């Protein structure tokens, strides 16, 4: 349905001016603490992983340091796995799922893989429970050369440095959520920002994955879905055989052109990449279920890759 309802900021049919973006920024409020809820959990993990501060957001560097965890006993004979969370800061289980994986499961896989884990790419978005950064830019549409989003640019530089020092990443698992607020706030705001009509959509009831159109890796995606299905329900296709407007290629899986869209999952040349989408607003789940679903997605991916490495070619 075409919705022409006026968003509270801007002029209908016109892209936002800098003044409109500033007006939007003024509506954003700090609602939780990145340092207390996230950084305080990442820093103790330095006993297990090398703690890297790969940058800090320039608008408040003392409040928003950017942290990543890198395997201590790096071995270039092992494949490298990149795990990212909190590219959209409001998607809480991406952040805490990545941390929970390190706390509970990473040690089981360190003999097989090197890890680079960035649990919270957008800490201001985490604090304000927001999809965008303070400049009304979506970091998850900004993974390209000369990115306007410093969150994206910093992570891209970290990955480039790691790959230059070692070898290309084999797999990238980017942890996300699809929430009810996507339709209630973020997509209407996007339409207003860009000066286009808001096209109402629907929120999938359950977990799903977004693979890469150019390298879909269906068996890899299927293994993840099977692992997550033990923890939470998988989103069904809608009446058109789609999820969020994209054709379902198998249970709980759609594909996007990750590089063309500037998505985080397309930032490297990893053969295997996926974006998880947890549904935290379901009455069937709680916050811990969502975190565990993210952990199950990572475990499913790693188990598949390890089994494939051991199978005859």
Automatic annotation (TrEMBL):
This is Peptidase. The keyword Coiled coil does not apply. It comes from Shewanella gelidii. SUPFAM superfamilies: Zn-dependent exopeptidases. Residues 24-305 form the Peptidase M14 domain. The keyword Zinc applies. Its cofactor is Zn(2+). One of its GO terms (molecular function) is hydrolase activity, acting on ester bonds.
């Amino acid at each position: 349905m075409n919705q022409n309802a006026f968003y509270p900021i801007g002029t209908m049919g016109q892209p936002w001016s800098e003044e409109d973006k500033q007006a939007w920024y003024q509506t954003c409020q700090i609602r939780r603490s990145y340092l207390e809820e996230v950084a305080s959990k990442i820093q103790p993990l330095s006993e297990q992983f090398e703690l890297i501060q790969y940058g800090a957001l320039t608008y408040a560097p003392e409040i928003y340091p950017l942290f990543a965890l890198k395997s201590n006993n790096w071995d270039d004979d092992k494949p490298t796995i990149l795990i990212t969370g909190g590219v959209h800061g409001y998607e809480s289980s991406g952040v805490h799922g990545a941390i929970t994986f390190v706390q509970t499961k990473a040690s089981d896989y360190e003999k097989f893989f090197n890890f680079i884990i960035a649990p919270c790419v957008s800490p201001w978005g985490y604090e304000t429970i927001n999809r965008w950064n303070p400049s009304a830019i979506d970091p998850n549409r900004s993974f390209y050369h000369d990115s306007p989003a410093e969150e994206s640019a910093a992570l891209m530089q970290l990955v480039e440095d790691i790959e230059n020092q070692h070898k290309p990443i084999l797999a990238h698992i980017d942890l996300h959520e699809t929430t009810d607020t996507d339709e209630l706030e973020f997509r209407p705001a996007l339409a207003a920002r860009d000066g286009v009509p808001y096209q109402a959509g629907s929120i999938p009831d359950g977990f799903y994955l977004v693979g890469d159109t150019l390298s879909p890796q269906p068996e890899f995606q299927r293994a993840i879905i099977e692992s997550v299905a033990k923890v939470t329900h998988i989103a069904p296709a809608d009446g058109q055989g789609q999820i969020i407007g994209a054709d379902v290629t198998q249970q709980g899986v759609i594909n996007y052109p990750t590089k063309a869209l500037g998505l985080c999952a397309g930032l490297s040349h990893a053969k295997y990449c996926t974006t998880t989408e947890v549904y935290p607003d379901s009455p069937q789940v709680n916050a811990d279920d969502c975190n565990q679903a993210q952990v199950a997605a990572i475990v499913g991916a790693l188990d598949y890759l390890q089994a494939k490495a051991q199978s005859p070619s």
